[in-house]
Amino acid sequence: DRQTLVAVLQFLRRSNLRESEEILRREARLLGDDLGGSVSTVASSSSGVAAVPAVPPGKGGVRAGAAGSLPGAKGRPLPARNVETAGGSCGVVVEDQPDVSAVLSAYNQQGDPALYEEYYSGLKHFIECSLDCHRAELSQLFYPLFVHMYLELVYNQHESEAKSFFERFHGDQECYYQDDLRVLSSLTKKEHMKGNETMLDFRTSKFVLRISRDSYQLLKRHLQEKQNNQIWNIVQEHLYIDIFDGMPRSKQQIDAMVGSLAGEAKREANKAKVFFGLLKEPEFDVPLDDEDEEGENEEGKPKKKKPKKDSVGSKSKKQDPNAPPQNRIPLPELKDSDKLDKVMNMKEAARRVRLGPECLPSICFYTFLNAYQGLTAVDITDDSSMIVGGFADSTVRVWSVTPKKLRSVKTAADLSLIDKESDDVLERIMDEKTASELKILYGHSGPVYGTSFSPDRNYLLSCSEDGTVRLWSLQTFTCLVGYKGHNYPVWDTQFSPYGYYFVSGGHDRVARLWATDHYQPLRIFAGHLADVTCTRFHPNSNYIATGSADRTIRLWDVLNGNCVRIFTGHKGPIHSVAFSPNGRFLATGATDGRVLLWDIGHGLMVGELKGHTDTIYALRFSRDGEILASGSMDNTVRLWDAVKAFEDLETDDFTTATGHINLPENSQDLLLGTYMTKSTPVVHLHFTRRNLLLAAGAYSSQ
């Protein structure tokens, strides 16, 4: 995109960043010094100008640039890679937007404004009269063409023509574009376009359509016969047509996949290999004892015993063929307390209830009553001993849900008096005077939108509208660090299943990977076209899934920051994401009330669960992955048969190659139960280690 490139070079020159300008020039093979008008010589090489992607405008701040290296938990640095920008990876650090005018000026190529309606209705007539098999595919053109033609009219100040064009054709667009059209209808003057990020994104990122070769040839022939250059130019300039060989797709198949801000994902986007298998559990001996279980206190310190050898600790001797190498990213070493916790976990697992259609879990619902502070986030520890609420009044409140009260560590002076060698030193350091069921943590200066307990229950993360993520100690109930990287509200945060790393996502459309002991992010995942609304770690901690208001879900590789999967199909912003325990599948829920199921290895949608009537805020698989629970604003918890949903999937090579997905219409067969609350929207779900389902939400009186 030459204009953008020139804009960037001009900006670098104005800012006296000569070195960067030179580097960029060399990268892009732009020689000659004439920046004023056109760039004089462009060396025609294979990379051409495409070597430098457009940095999306409307998103100031440092977007590209090397990510630095991930400091290993064991001190081994990960290699520094470039962070992916919306266009690919790019080494230029651009502090500010490129000239917006340069990006918009592509709209200058002028047709006769009076003929726009004729062009569009001519194409519409052609598509509606084409054969059924092509009609569904070609209908995908309506929306992107409508938007670009409208913006072109507005940009060239033909306001009345733009208005009549909008009024005449906006009713023909698919219902799931209503929200976008509302934004569009408010852009009626050239000046409005400069500040509108959504429309600038629409301008800079090509809208992706997936069309069979036959349908494409048909379209091309029609436009060339009609000499309809205006539309052909837009198709060439602003659309990316992903052509596949084979049968055209049906209306249902297309409807399942479209609906995001930038169309579908290119098929290339989901081709990279993903190591979705689980890491091997470390092996250690488990002391076997049943009679003495009551004697253990809750810290999980077994009484002194001769450990007998037991095979539970070494369940998985074989390496999962789809698992990443054990040392692909540095993970923290297990501490003794972690090993004890794993032992407790295994004991609990031995008593776990096997769930299934015949054996549904009991559900225990924690209702927040009189939550006038406005409950905005909930999390529950893995061992289900504590629950945390984030509130709109900027407080974080932690409750103990076992009889054991929350206690802080004693002051330094008192600690110095303790005998460090005694067996119960961990008990002695706690201050009984501080024991209470509830602790309130103050520090944020805006509503708290996300909370997450660390796996070892020593730390708690919270993220807020104030743009920070805070790390709290659950030993002292004080704030240890405030991580400042996002300049706008942070919508979600989550600890890695192994601790140490955590992820956050926010209004600045970027997800960031952090380590607790670094105050700068280790990775920046850029590529979404709207807010990153939810973030989740894959069970093996090598990948992160982010759901966004651009109606797509992306899977990112923690090692190098690359985007390895883009899933489209939701018709509204995504608000919940959950990985299946075996790491193979992903479930996502959005404002459209649908739960979509994805096969990560093949990069395909494999199911759709319909039933909810409002936004889905919570999704969770049971501990063995037999049941998927979903919680929604419609005040219900629904249980779905996950085993049946994922069995005998047809993922043959053809489907993978063309994306012809055939979704079974069996949501109702998969629905195992619907449970109503008393006007309490469900914001969080959690399966205990024994497969009891815990749910949480705040009672709303209206």
From TrEMBL:
GO terms for cellular component: transcription factor TFIID complex. Residues 309-320 have a biased composition (Basic and acidic residues). It comes from the Eukaryota. WD repeats lie at residues 368-409, 441-476, 483-514, 525-566, 567-600, 609-641. Residues 286-338 are annotated as: Disordered. One of its GO terms (molecular function) is RNA polymerase II general transcription initiation factor activity. Residues 286-297 have a biased composition (Acidic residues). Residues 111-239 form the TFIID subunit TAF5 NTD2 domain. GO terms for biological process: transcription initiation at RNA polymerase II promoter. SMART domains: WD40. InterPro entries: LisH, TFIID_NTD2, TFIID_NTD2_sf, WD40/YVTN_repeat-like_dom_sf, WD40_PAC1, WD40_repeat_CS, WD40_repeat_dom_sf, WD40_rpt. Keywords: Nucleus, Repeat, Transcription, Transcription regulation, WD repeat. Signal peptide: none annotated. CDD domains: TAF5_NTD2, WD40. It is found in: Nucleus. Its main location: nucleus. Pfam families: TFIID_NTD2 (PF04494), WD40 (PF00400). PANTHER family: TRANSCRIPTION INITIATION FACTOR TFIID, TRANSCRIPTION INITIATION FACTOR TFIID SUBUNIT 5. Belongs to the WD repeat TAF5 family. Homodimer. Component of the TFIID basal transcription factor complex, composed of TATA-box-binding protein TBP, and a number of TBP-associated factors (TAFs), including TAF1, TAF2, TAF3, TAF4, TAF5, TAF6, TAF7, TAF8, TAF9, TAF10, TAF11, TAF12 and TAF13. The TFIID complex structure can be divided into 3 modules TFIID-A, TFIID-B, and TFIID-C. TAF5 forms the TFIID-A module together with TAF3 and TBP, and in TFIID-B with TAF8. Component of the TFTC-HAT complex, at least composed of TAF5L, TAF6L, TADA3L, SUPT3H/SPT3, TAF2, TAF4, TAF5, GCN5L2/GCN5, TAF10 and TRRAP. The TFIID basal transcription factor complex plays a major role in the initiation of RNA polymerase II (Pol II)-dependent transcription. TFIID recognizes and binds promoters with or without a TATA box via its subunit TBP, a TATA-box-binding protein, and promotes assembly of the pre-initiation complex (PIC). The TFIID complex consists of TBP and TBP-associated factors (TAFs), including TAF1, TAF2, TAF3, TAF4, TAF5, TAF6, TAF7, TAF8, TAF9, TAF10, TAF11, TAF12 and TAF13. The TFIID complex structure can be divided into 3 modules TFIID-A, TFIID-B, and TFIID-C. This is Transcription initiation factor TFIID subunit 5. The gene is Taf5.
